[in-house]
Design goal:
There is one protein chain. The protein is α/β, with parallel strands linked by helices and 406 residues long. 33% of the residues lie in helices and 14% in strands. It has 2 domains: 13-37 and 183-388, 2-Layer Sandwich (Nucleotidyltransferase, domain 5); 42-177, no CATH class. It contains 17 helices and 13 strands. Strands 6, 7, 8, 9, 10, 11 and 13 form a 7-stranded mixed sheet that branches. Strands 1-4 form a two-stranded antiparallel sheet. A two-stranded antiparallel ribbon has the order 2-3. Strand 6 and strand 7 form a beta hairpin. The longest helix is centred in the C-terminal third of the chain and has 18 residues, at 371-388. It comes from Clonostachys rhizophaga.
Length: 406
């Protein structure tokens, strides 16, 4: 359960200054994997996935994708999971599989003539155990029904029952990847009445499921005002794509929950509308706070310049503590170094940090995550740091470059 009565935080000039100084620079965010610019052609190329195992295809995967007669035969056997459709003949009379290889620059004629295929990836214990060596593409050929795979009648968590030397790339429609991975910057107005002001700072948390193509998809979004603790937005989000599962164990959201919300029209329909809902209370200079916020912004396809990530704060503190320890692990530690050693072992999960810093239990076993609870936890965790460890001073109005220390 989320904290029922969050304590308000005083909106003093000093606190505002510390909050602004806590914002991470674009250089740090880029280094930590945040998307701060639209994706390049190479970035988009890395988003292509296998239609069977949903693995993102690496450059090496694509270089070694050489189809054989065996793979071309499977065109009739394997449906495109991302769309739930069979592989029909496409332009120029090519099959969808051939088209996929063509898009990746693979010569299908050469592959058939030479019968070439990538050697299987050997299980390091394969020779000793007599088991069949593991191959590159490992997957279930069926679908999940009542938490069981139809192909092998095993639980949804069971290891893949099928494998193949090569991946089977999804054949994307022209512009499909570009449209799916288009990122949007926070607009000036956000659709609000010009007379209304945006929140100074908010804490955000999202829950995600997994689409049929293997991508993380937004299924719930929560926005909490940093100073008042008021919930500004909390809604389920019905994805625009077919879903493999809703990560119910962790998200606390089931397929039935989403279907019921769709029927009653009590949810937000699609990530585009979710962004618009957020932008009604978040402006281009609003500070947004979260724990591991990168994944939330990624699911929203959103670029924002003022970010405070409590996971990065804790990570900087842990690294600073490790830097203060002697290189020789056998060297006897003084009292200060013993303290640094303890700090260096600090866990980075929101659940562990909330208990450590705030003495509060969240994400209780069996209940899944509550995005309101998690947003409030990241808000209070940042407040704890601003009270106990003042944010590094910035020499200019631009976001600071970090510098959280022990």
């Amino acid at each position: 359960m989320a904290e029922s009565t969050p304590q308000p935080i005083e909106q003093s000039p000093a606190h505002l200054r510390h909050l602004q100084n806590a914002v991470f620079s674009s250089a740090i965010l880029r280094r930590k994997g945040y998307i701060i610019d639209p994706l390049t052609k190479d970035d988009l190329e890395r988003k292509k996935r296998c239609s069977r195992c949903s693995k993102a295809l690496s450059k090496k995967d694509k270089e070694e994708l050489v189809p054989t007669k065996k793979h071309l035969k499977k065109v009739k056997e394997v449906g495109d999971k991302s769309r739930g459709a069979g592989y029909a003949a496409g332009p120029r009379g090519e099959t969808a599989l051939e088209g996929s290889f063509s898009l990746l620059g693979v010569n299908t004629a050469k592959g058939e003539a030479n019968g070439a295929s990538r050697p299987p990836v050997n299980d390091k214990d394969g020779d000793k155990t007599g088991r069949e060596p593991l191959k590159r593409c490992r997957y279930h050929s069926g679908v999940v029904q009542a938490k069981m795979w139809t192909c092998c009648r095993k639980h949804v968590s069971a290891a893949p029952c099928c494998q193949d030397d090569n991946h089977l790339p999804i054949q994307y429609a022209p512009g499909e990847i570009e449209a799916n991975w288009l990122f949007y910057r926070t607009p000036q107005s956000g659709g609000r009445n010009p007379q209304q002001s945006f929140a100074i700072a908010v804490a955000i948390d999202c829950e995600m499921g997994v689409s049929d193509s293997g991508e993380s998809e937004l299924i719930r979004v929560t926005v909490v005002d940093y100073f008042s603790g008021a919930v500004l937005l909390d809604s389920l989000v019905a994805p625009d794509v077919r879903m493999k599962h809703y990560n119910t164990r962790f998200s606390g959201i089931s397929r039935q929950d989403i279907n019921e919300a769709r029927r009653r029209r009590t949810c937000i329909f699609g990530r585009s509308n979710a962004r618009k809902a957020i932008w009604r209370c978040v402006g281009p200079r609003t500070v947004i706070i979260g724990h591991g916020l990168n994944s939330d912004l990624l699911s929203l396809r959103w670029i924002h310049p003022f970010i405070v990530d409590t996971m990065l704060i804790e990570d900087e503190i842990v690294h600073a503590a490790k830097a203060g320890l002697p290189e020789d692990p056998d060297q006897e530690l003084n009292e200060k170094q013993k303290g640094l050693l303890e700090i260096s072992k600090t866990p980075l999960s929101l659940k562990s940090l909330t208990l450590l810093r705030l003495d509060r239990h969240i994400q209780l076993k069996g209940q899944g995550h509550d995005s309101v609870e998690d947003a409030l936890a990241s808000r209070d965790l940042l407040h704890w740091h601003l009270v106990h460890r003042v944010a590094p001073e910035s020499s200019s109005p631009a976001p600071s470059t970090g510098g959280w220390t022990v």
